[in-house]
Amino acid sequence: MIRAIFPLPVFILPGGYTRLRIFEVRYLDMVKEALKSDGLFVLCDFDSESFSNVPETGCLVKIVDFDQDEKGHLLIDIHAQSIVTINNVTFSKSKLRYGETALLEGPGWLSHTQPLSLSDYILKESLEKLFKENHELSSIYKSTCFDDLPWVIARWLELIPISHNKKQQLAFNSGFANIQNFLHTVINNEFT
Fold this sequence. Notes:
The chain is of the alpha+beta class. Helices cover 35% and strands 29% of the residues.
């Protein structure tokens, strides 16, 4: 299916929510267009190496809420639906990118519900604490799954301050146990 594409250095995985500030006319048009149909568009990394600045994959996201900031800019809350491939990118007259998209399985570890083990409670509890202390973060999440280990791992990958490339590598090129061990190391050093 052909979808509008928004290249932005935001890392999000299926099940995640984030808030975007929209002020460029082409992206305001994108939001209007999305809301006239199913509310979906593709969020992807900005790839300076490609002609269209669009990588081969992105995340299909759905607009779930909107508001205005103090400067009158549009704020949209989006919910990540699935990973998609992106092909045949074109530009509209307003320089908005469009591409053919197809659902892509992955990351596999995220689609399997898994209960928390005793050693994983530090990941859960520290994430719950972060949500509790950060009103903006907790306000955009319509639902949470703190008892589902893959959900907790995905949210930590979105939130920890490491490079976008490292997040991509961990999420898509590492096994679940490697990601889990990495996060245990980081979180144990910060929260214990």
